[in-house]
Amino acid sequence: MPMVELGPAATQMAELIEGVPDELLGAPTPCLDYTLGDLVDHIRQLTIAFTAAAKKDTAAMTPGRAPGDAKNLGDDWRTRIPRDLAALAEAWREPAAWTGMTMAGGIDLPGELAGIITLDELVVHGWDVARTTGQDFDQDRESLEAVYGFVKQFSSAGEEARRGMFGPEVAVPDDAPLLDRLLGLTGRDPGWSPT
After folding, report:
1. Position 134 pLDDT exceeds 70
2. At the topology level of CATH, where does 7-143 sit?
3. Which of 120, 106, 123, 125 is nearest to 38 (CA)?
4. Residue ranges covered by each domain of the chain
């Protein structure tokens, strides 16, 4: 897997987080187990975890994965999370982040795999936040192609057990836009709406 620039996805996520209104924090999201506030907290956590993974900073790595919970956001989340997202993108610009072994969520994994998982989280959850809040989502083609290639691996025969990490696949026409095909592979209905 080649090194991918995470800056566009991190920047878009930061803008989406800044645009989340307080009154929607309890709203449902395409992530069935998460309200919007819980999802924003999940994004907060993954930003910290994958920054540590890029830096191979074992002191900052968490031993496991806690579910997102809006109660953990704190008062400054609209400024803190975007600042942390900028640090995340910067950490993954280092070629060393994409090599060797690292850890995220208590799981050992190759740096290049951690990098593409980070991008996947930013792109897919960016869409989740955008759809829930009614904000625009316009991800760059390179990021979409990289994430689609990663997720597509789990839709082949014999990968059913690993597909659960995304949810059951949603059927999307083969000629649908790339974003819609990606969303279908992650178990999301491209036409999802919070109402």
Report:
1. yes
2. Four Helix Bundle (Hemerythrin (Met), subunit A) (1.20.120)
3. 125
4. 7-143
